[in-house]
Amino acid sequence: MLKIIAFILSFISFVISLVMYPQLPDQLAILSSSGERGNDVDKAFGAYIMPALMLIAWLVHIVIEHIDIKKLQTAFSGC
């Protein structure tokens, strides 16, 4: 159930980025940890980096969940 919720949230973030993309300025500011303005990034990068990272994290979780540790341990025990 949590996997479905994580995928839905990733998908919603992509949809929000698609809808809001035309309204974004050409350059987006990146804030530093102290709250000061840092570098500027292209609006495509700024709009889609977080949804992409969410999707990548979800995919990594799915892949790791299907790895059988016991099989890996027996396969590499002869090395």
Specify the number of helices.
3
Coarse morphology: elongated
The biggest sheet amounts to: 2 strands, antiparallel
Number of strands: 2
Order of helices and strands: HEEHH
The helix content is: 55-70%
User: What is the structural class?
Assistant: alpha+beta
Order of strands in the sheet with the most strands? 1-2
- Summarize model confidence as the mean pLDDT: 86
Q: How is this fold's topology laid out?
A:
Elements: H1 2-20, E1 27-31, E2 37-42, H2 43-65, H3 69-76
Name its key features.
2 strands; alpha+beta; elongated; 79 residues
Would you summarize the structure shown here?
This is DUF1648 domain-containing protein. The chain is of the alpha+beta class and 79 residues long.
If you had to describe this structure to a student in words, what would you say it looks like?
With about 80 residues, the chain is α+β, with helices and mostly antiparallel strands. Helix content is about 65%, strand content about 15%. It has three helices and two strands. The protein has helices at about 1-20, 45-65, 70-75, and strands spanning about 25-30, 35-40. It has a two-stranded antiparallel sheet. Strand 1 (about 25-30) and strand 2 form a beta hairpin. Helix 1 runs antiparallel to helix 2. It is elongated and about 55 Å long. The N and C termini lie far apart (about 40 Å). The model has no long low-confidence stretch (mean pLDDT about 85).
